[in-house]
Amino acid sequence: MSVEPHDYDWAAVRLVAHVHRGSFETVGVVLHARRARYLGVRLCPAPAAAAAAGLDTGLVRRFFDAYRRVGEGDAAGPLGLLPPSERFHWLTAPRSTALQASPVHTGRAADLPRTLDDLFQSLVAVSLHSPPRSV
């Protein structure tokens, strides 16, 4: 028995230490499949990201916690009550803050949680061991 693949959108989550310089560390991935009503967020541990970006660990932990809560829809205030597609668009909207999303990309997969894990491994595990990039 085969599982029907789902179309999905995804973006890398970036921690930008100096917004005016545009340098960043890739710290996570957000993936959304509208028809499957799936929204997944995976972020690296906040202390590792803070150290890589040269930011305060407590501040980065609060950023990550808020981002995860919106993705999960739990205890995220009014944003958490929105459907997954609207939360995805909120999470990936362009902004000039320390936590930003890359452009949105598309894909197709049958196992969405595994795809999220694979994207995380290929984008984030590599990024934390490389020098910061600029946009």
Structure explained in plain terms:
This protein is α+β, with helices and mostly antiparallel strands and 135 residues long. It has helices spanning 46-53, 57-72, 77-80, 84-92, 112-127; strands at residues 6-18, 23-33, 38-43, 99-101, 105-109, 133-134. Strands 1, 2, 3, 4, 5 and 6 form a 6-stranded antiparallel beta sheet that branches. The longest helix is centred in the middle third of the chain and has 16 residues, at 57-72. The relative contact order is 0.27. The mean pLDDT is 86.
Query: What is the average per-residue confidence, as pLDDT, rounded to a whole number?
Result: 86
Q: Could you spell the SSE succession in H and E letters?
A: EEEHHHHEEHE
> So what's the overall shape?
globular
Task: Work out the helicity level.
Answer: 25-40%
- Count of separate DSSP helical elements: 5
Measured on Cα atoms, how large is the radius of gyration?
A: 15 Å
Quick one: biggest sheet? 6 strands, antiparallel
Which structural class do the helices and strands define?
Answer: alpha+beta
Work out the strand percent: 25-35%
Number of strands: 6
Distance between the termini: 44 Å
Q: Low-confidence spans: pLDDT under 50, at least 5 residues?
A: none
Task: Label this structure with key terms.
135 residues, alpha+beta, six-stranded antiparallel β-sheet, 5 helices, 30% strand
